Amino acid sequence: MPSFGIFLFLLLVVATGLYSIVLIWNYIKTKDLSYVKKLITILILPGVLISFSLYSHFPITKERVIGIYEIDNRFYPGKNSDWQKDHFFFEITKDNEFIFNEKLKDGSIKTIRGRVEWYRDKPPMLYRIIMDNEHPLIDPTPVLYRGKRKFYYVFESKFGNMFYRKTE
């Protein structure tokens, strides 16, 4: 049964392609804009379908995961999430290093280092955080949530769920 679907799809592609060539040829010969309007009309649906298929496929590769993440305070707006955004962020480096930064009361930055262990070889790339000492704000197995083009991680911490989104 799938071969019938592929056959039908190819038949529609060939028919649309041939009809488009005929319309372009007629426009070149006559310079009549009605041929261009017909061409645009028949190409709108394939254009929309191609756009949706290209937009929906954005795999989460290791290159996309590597970067700096900060709290996304749009999930639960308010003073607490704003405070968290001002005080916590982390980075995943190309060298599989996990760097968690915490802003202290005096304005200095406390850096805690760990390693990232990738446990999946294909997208979406998933990882574990290996720390020498456990930290109450670092979830060793963050949960990945993804949409069409964007994704974010949720860390379970002493503050509850912390939502991190990539900034760089």
Account of the 3D structure:
With 168 residues, this protein is α+β, with helices and mostly antiparallel strands. Helices cover 39% and strands 29% of the residues. The protein is built from four helices and eight strands. It has an eight-stranded antiparallel β-sheet. Strand 2 and strand 3 form a beta hairpin. Helix 1 packs antiparallel against helix 2. The chain is elongated. The mean pLDDT is 87.
Strand order of the largest sheet: 5-4-3-2-1-8-7-6
Order of helices and strands: HHHEHEEEEEEE
What is the CA–CA distance across the termini?
46 Å
Percent in helix: 25-40%
Instruction: Give the helix tally.
Output: 4
Class by alpha and beta content: alpha+beta
Low-confidence sequence ranges = none
Tell me how many strands there are: 8
Shape: elongated
Strand content: 25-35%
Radius of gyration: 25 Å
* Biggest sheet architecture: 8 strands, antiparallel
At a glance:
The chain is of the alpha+beta class and 168 residues long.
Layout of helices and strands:
Layout: H1 2-30, H2 33-56, H3 62-65, E1 67-71, H4 79-87, E2 88-92, E3 97-103, E4 109-118, E5 127-130, E6 143-146, E7 151-157, E8 160-166
Antiparallel strand pairs: 1-2, 1-8, 2-3, 3-4, 4-5, 6-7, 7-8
Helix pairs in contact: 1-2
